[in-house]
UniProtKB/TrEMBL annotation:
Keywords: Coiled coil
Lineage of origin: Bacteria, Pseudomonadati, Pseudomonadota, Betaproteobacteria, Burkholderiales
Coiled coil regions, renumbered to chain: 89-144
Protein name, per record: Cointegrate resolution protein T
Domain of life: Bacteria
Annotated organism of origin: Glaciimonas soli
Record field: compositional bias (Basic and acidic residues): 1-21
Keyword set includes Coiled coil: yes
Chain residue ranges for the region called Disordered: 1-24
The keyword Coiled coil is assigned to this record: yes
Amino acid sequence: MEHYRQSVKEQRDQDRRRHEQQIQQLQAEMRQLQQSLVVKQDDITRLNQEGARLVADLSHAQKSLYEQQSHSRQLTQKFEALQAIEQHCKTVEAQLEDKDAHIKELTNQAAGAAKQAEGLAKRIHGLELTLAAAQARLETQQAMSEQLRAFMGHQEAPEAKEPAP
């Protein structure tokens, strides 16, 4: 009988040690998940900052494009006014050619700014997709963490109910 009691006691001790090892492993995994979560949150913060910067850059590019288009329209009006005067003065003709070259340069600049704005819009879209994916991963990790906590809480509750030997 004493041998049986000793055997049962050893079995309980082994079970308790095995349970403690499992708890330690789960706690280590939980720490790793929390560290991963911190890294992901840092990534999200960085992506949000980069997205805000890109939005500001896009806004600046759009404003610049609008100003260049407005400037181009003004130059076009001046060009048309100079055409009426062109018949009267050779000097005005030279100025008109300079304005024409300037308009072409501004048109090229406007086209370049439009291409840049399009590229920035694509990049913002890509970053928004990356952010959405990161947020989805974060939510999944949080859900897994909550399930792990619930599981650990469920595992600890039955032990508290066991009678002491």
